[in-house]
Amino acid sequence: MAESDEWREIKYKEVFDQEIRGLNRRRQSDTGCKTEDLEGILSNLYILEGADHDGRGTLQDTILSATIAAYEHFIHQWRLESQK
């Protein structure tokens, strides 16, 4: 990986991990939280991702991409747990 691109991977991992921790805390503290609630947020994140008419820039694109990936991952894992 080029040194100039390394910051993106570092930032992506930082944001992804932070979002997963936040989602875990929410799930534990908010007994009313359901996967459907998180899917609603994810749906809005998809809309935000597609609404880049002004150009967010590389940093904001990286943050948004990591946030979306964290929500997708968390919802998927929660559903797998529910199937057991």
What does this structure look like?
- This protein is mainly alpha-helical.
- Helices cover 81% and strands 0% of the residues.
- Helix 1 crosses helix 3 (58-82) and helix 2 (35-50) packs antiparallel against helix 3.
- The chain starts with a helix and ends with a helix.
- The relative contact order is 0.18.
Quick overview:
By secondary structure, the protein is an all-alpha fold. It has helices at 3-29, 35-50, 58-82. The chain starts with a helix and ends with a helix.
Helix content: over 70%
Structural class of the helices, strands and pairings? mainly alpha
Strand content: under 5%
Radius of gyration: 14 Å
Overall geometry comes to globular
Figure out the total of helices. Answer: 3
Query: What is the H/E string?
Result: HHH
Q: What is the number of beta strands?
A: 0
Which regions have little confidence, pLDDT < 50, spanning 5+ residues? none
Amino- and carboxy-terminal Cα gap: 39 Å
What's the overall average pLDDT, rounded? 92
List keywords for this structure.
3 helices; 84 residues; mainly alpha
Topology readout:
Elements: H1 3-29, H2 35-50, H3 58-82
Helix pairs in contact: 1-3, 2-3
